[in-house]
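Entry 14: structure prediction run for Ferredoxin. Input pasted below.
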Amino acid sequence: MEDIMFLRCEQACEVARNVKTFKLRILDISHSTTPEPGQYISIVFPDCSGIRQQRSYTVIGKPENDLIVIAVQRTGRGGVSDRLHADLKEGVVVGATGAAGEITSEALIGASELVLLAGGIGITLPYGLIKSLSTLHDAGLPVPKTTLFLSAPDVTDIPFLGELLKLDMSTDWFSIRLFITRSPIRHSTVQFRSGRIQASLLAEHAQPDTVIICGGHSFAQSLHEQCNQVYERAHYLIESFSAPETDEITNGRPHPVTLYIEGIDKELVMQSDQSLLDGLEAHGIPIKTQCRTGVCGSCKIRINSGDIHRSADFALRATERAAGYALACCSFPQGKAVSISL
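Run finished. Output tokens:
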């Protein structure tokens, strides 16, 4: 059974256009592992149509042992985030699964140079890490030289901007580079440029030993490919918070696929535009899951036969892929039949 904790909203604050932060008090602290900045929790809450959903949010701060902070962006698409913006107010209690994710300040121990790449609300993970590193630095502990590359449509869309710029100007270990994709920048500066993050710009920096990428599926995949061209020896940590577009996988022409599940002797029919996770859940087959975007690794399965399309399975090592393992949330069946083991 998943570790469920209950959180009471202590404060809601708007920090940028369409972005709010929420301070959440953990009510059953003795029964849960308290999340650390950089980890994420999955809140269970109705969307705007009243359907209960599970949505993951990064912890960006931990002012007290039983008090955490998350940031939520309103998208206008009627999902859980929009409902939280409207209804999560002081005193409201929500349920959430316990802490998950391994990208914390502890994962950066020993790193000498760190590059963070974020798109849009993907800033939440880097921001949580930067805050933790700043606390360590203020305590006299060594921290990696850190550069944040952040892409956003407009300056007004960037939460925590003033705080990050102040940190850039007041320390020698942190710098920020902002790329504005929609609104024009009249005069480029060291911190502000128009356009998107490009490999040629990344190459201007020294070789980091650690690179962290956080953003939507397409952003994370594209930046990972670009970084591999210029940061060949870096260790990569990736968090993607959206699933791949199925049209990219099926070319808009889904077809039925027979899925065999060895070990429990089950056979079911699903569509090729469904992930294996969606197909299993649609037929009531229990499978552990958390992030649903290839980051946490909870839904690891083994492919015994048949072809699949893998997309953004960041949590798997190359040796695991070679051994036939896959993540059900971002694996799509190809051909007529696939056999798996849970």
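Notes: The chain has three domains: 4-100, 105-240, 256-341. Will compare against the previous run tomorrow.
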